[in-house]
Each structure stands twice: as C-alpha cells, then as structure tokens.
Design a protein that fits this description.
The longest helix is centred in the last third of the chain and has 27 residues. The two termini are 30 Å apart. Helix 1 packs across helix 2, helix 5 runs parallel beside helix 7 and helix 7 crosses helix 9. Helix content is 38%, strand content 21%. The chain folds into 3 domains: 241 residues, Alpha-Beta Barrel (TIM Barrel), CATH 3.20.20.60; 80 residues, M1 Pyruvate Kinase, Domain 3 (Beta Barrel); 130 residues, 3-Layer(aba) Sandwich (Pyruvate Kinase, Chain: A, domain 1), CATH 3.40.1380.20.
Length: 483
C-alpha cells in the first residue's frame, strides 16, 4: 500500500488474481481490492481473497477487500444462434415468458418488465447501443419500435431508464454471495443498482441475518438514485460513482456534473467516494493512457474524490501494475497542482475551504473538532494530525478537509485500520491494546514510533484528536511537541 493521499481500488480478475501479481499491485499502491461477484466463481474469489489476506499480513500493510454484489441486472434472454440483427425502424416484441429469441421476438431475465414499463418508455440494450421505444402493451408482452438498431445477443444488459423497476435490490444470488463474503472476511460490501435508501437498509437486514455487519458502499448508477441522493448517501457508509450504467441510463453529457455533485455531497456528509469506470480503459491493451483519460483521473482528484477505481484495466488487462502506477502519478501531480494553486491564490489559508463543515448535520461536536484540528495544524505548521480511532469517523472527516499534513489514524482494532485504507489522506497505524488504553509510558512509545515513521525532529508539532483513555475516543484536541 502506498502513502499517497488518493486511494486506489483495483478489481481482481484473471490478470491479477495470482499471488505474484497481487503482491506487485499492493506494492504499487493499491489500497482496496474489489471482488466483482458478477464475474468469476466463488472458488476463484476465495483463492484471491486468501492470497490477499496472506500478503497483507506478510507485507505489514493495511488494505481492504470489497465484495461487489451483482445486483438486479436485467438481461436479454437466450437468442437463437446467439444473436439476431434488428434494423432501424423495425418493430419487435419483448415477451414476459422465455422464448427462443429472434430480432422480432425475444424475452428478458426480468419477468415483470411488462408491468414496469409504460408506452413511450425507452428500452436500451447492450450499453445503449440498441435503442427501443415502447409503443404498445399487452398482458404478456410489450411492443417496441427500434430507434437505433444492431445485433441483439444472448444475456446482453438491458436498461430501463424511464421505468420504475420492481426488482429487489438483493437477488437470490446476491444473498448467497453476501453470506460467503461476510464469512470470508471482507471489509466492505458494494450494493449495485441502488434506487432508494430502503435498498441499503435491506442489505443491512440481510447482513444481520448472516451474523455480521460491514460498511456498505452504494453504487450510484440509476436515475432513481440521482433523485434520492442525499437520503441514499446519508444511509450508506461510502459511495461509488458507477459511470458505466449511469451513462447508459442518463444523458451522457450530464455525467461530469453529476459526478461533481455526488462528490460534493459526499464531502459535506463525510463519506468516502470512489470514481469508477474506464478511468484508464485504453490501458487494458496499451501501456499508456490517452490524454483524455489522464485528464479524467486528474479532474476526479481535483473534484475531491477519495479514491479512483480500476475495473477491466486490472481485472483482464495486459498492464495491471503499470495502470496502478499511472494512477498514482496522475493523482500525485494533480494534488501538487491543487496545493500550489491554493497557496498562490490565498496563501496557506486557501487550502482549507472555510465554507465546509463536514458531518455537521450528523454530529456537530465531532464535526467542529475535526475542522478545528485542521485549522490548528495549518496555523501552527504542524507536521502531523493524529486521530485516536474507534470507528474511524473522525479521521475520515479530518481527511475531507484535505490538509497538507498526513492524517494518522491510530487504532488497536485491525479491522478499523483496514477500513481506513479507503479514506483520503488517512494513513492507518495499528497500536497495541496497552497503547490504545494509554497505560504507563505507552503514549511516549507511540510518539517515538510516529517520529521514526514520519522523520520528525525534536520541537516539531503534531495535533492529536481524541483521548485513548475514553472508550469512544472523546472529541478533544491537544498539541504535542516531539521531545
């Protein structure tokens, strides 16, 4: 795991599941590994996760594993001969019961589609390459006219951007995958195709039935989610801007502004946010990205994202490790530009957004302490901001202010340290139970370790948030000079 402030999420797949490649990815700076449960077998994911756990221990790093549930993805049914061409202007029927599909008549994996759509609704197939419009409905089928044709293949994605899809947020397969992921020891679970805050609560109920709760990452990829953003983000633990399906279901030119809006809302609420989909897609086959991709990554960093994610680049691409290295270079350069620009515009004070009050609506006291820690560290030129962590919320909120200093999250809980690997600017550091309890000379020993780790000299300062003697890490501030 690297010490860069922007965190990197890498999807594991055939190109990166081996222990040797996975070790190179972690050394290159991967903070979170994603297990995409839409693809691959449980046996393959289990082997990859076991290798990850061993490497994490052997390398002495804090990194997290995220299981990404497939969700209620609607797909076309079986097509005769694998695919069938549908011409512009042609008509077709989508049946509620399985049929051997042709361009004129095919089915889907969602039997309730006929009830969900209305006349005039769009039906998009294969990432929007084929565009249909509903013209008529019967009890068992919908009739459509093709506005943009192409070859309809078996099990291709089908999107209903204008419809209220009645599918449950958690499919039967998701339930099985969730139980495996929780038992296998992942730190995060990502929920696909979230439409409302109730979907998140349904996932937490399923976790309770399985006997273990972990933080929930909501994937924002539907128009319904955009209409309920604040409620969904408030209910979740982190958000992922899944620009693939979002760009199919909504006007693609709106996606950049939607991305900025989601990042802004997550920053205000103190929730980590990941930007995903085709960040460096050309590096699936090429050792270098396009200029547009470099700009895309840099703008995600400048927008305030906590993390950027690789999908096909690390899962099936030819250059998984160079992709991670490239992300790190782009992110580091973008941050240096941001800091230099802020100082040029308003001096060091320009580095803190004075209008930002992270988490104020949730916990005003903790919010004020987090903000004050950054202000004090900035005013005094402190070298570190150190946060004693129970759940990690305060450290995460401090990081949202984008301080120049490293934010060190101290915790005796290994799981908390691993989860902090997703949070911008936070560098987890595990302490012993005795050190966490503030026994004897333990704080002096922690200071010594911090001084060695961050090359601090005598007289330099750090701002410390929290009290190790309090079970909830009570919100208080202190200033310490290195002896």
């Amino acid at each position: 795991m690297g010490t860069d402030k922007i965190k990197i999420v890498a999807t594991l797949g055939p190109a990166s599941r081996s222990a040797a490649t996975l070790e190179r990815l972690l050394r290159a700076g991967v903070d979170v590994v994603r297990l995409n449960l839409s693809h691959g077998s449980i046996e393959e994911h289990q082997a990859a996760l076991a290798a990850f756990h061993k490497l994490r221990w052997d390398l002495g790093i804090h990194a997290a594993a995220m299981a990404d549930l497939g969700g209620p993805k609607v797909r076309t049914g079986v097509m005769l001969e694998g695919k069938s061409d549908l011409a512009d202007g042609a008509t077709c029927r989508i049946e509620s019961l399985p049929v051997e599909g042709t361009a004129a008549r095919f089915s889907t994996t969602h039997p309730g589609l006929v009830d969900d759509v209305s006349v005039g609704d769009r039906v998009l197939i294969d990432d929007g390459r084929i565009r249909l419009r509903v013209t008529h409905k019967t009890d068992r089928a919908v009739e459509c006219v093709c506005e943009s044709g192409g070859a309809i293949g078996t099990h291709k994605g089908l999107n209903l951007p204008d419809s209220n899809v009645s599918l449950s947020a958690i499919t039967d397969k998701d339930g099985r995958d969730l139980r495996w992921a929780l038992e296998a020891g992942v730190e995060y679970v990502a929920l696909s195709f979230v439409r409302r805050a109730a979907d998140v609560e349904a996932l937490r109920t399923a976790m309770d039935e399985a006997g273990r709760r972990v933080p929930v990452v909501v994937k924002i990829e539907t128009p319904q989610a955009i209409r309920s953003l604040d409620e969904i983000i408030a209910t979740s633990d982190a958000a992922l801007v899944a620009r693939g399906d979002l760009g199919v279901e909504m006007d693609v030119w709106r996606i950049p502004m939607i991305q900025k809006d989601i990042v802004r809302r997550c920053r205000r609420m103190g929730k980590p946010v990941i930007i995903a989909t085709q960040m460096l897609h050309s590096m699936v086959a090429s050792p270098t990205p396009t200029r547009a991709e470099v700009s895309d990554v840099a703008n995600a960093v400048l927008d305030g994202a906590d993390a950027v994610m690789l999908s096909a680049e690390s899962a099936v691409g030819r250059f998984p490790v160079p992709s991670v290295e490239m992300l790190n270079r782009i992110a580091r350069d973008a941050l240096q530009f941001r800091w230099a620009s802020a100082c040029d515009a308003a001096g060091p004070d320009g580095l803190l957004d004075q209008r930002l009050y992270v988490g104020h609506g949730v916990d005003p006291t903790r919010s004020a302490v987090a903000r004050s820690a950054v202000l004090i560290a900035q005013d005094l030129g402190a070298q570190l901001i150190v946060v004693w962590c129970h759940s990690g919320t305060t450290a995460r909120w401090v990081g949202k202010y984008r301080p120049l200093q490293p934010v060190v999250g101290l915790s005796a809980d290994e799981t908390t340290c691993h989860r902090l690997a997703l949070c911008y600017g936070v560098e987890p550091m595990r302490v012993s139970p005795a050190e966490s309890a503030g026994e004897g000379a333990s704080w002096r020993e922690v200071q010594r370790r911090l001084a060695l780790r961050y090359d601090l000299a005598a007289g330099q300062m750090m701002v410390v948030v929290g009290d190790p003697l309090h079970p909830e890490r009570a919100s208080n501030l202190s200033i310490h000079r290195i002896e």
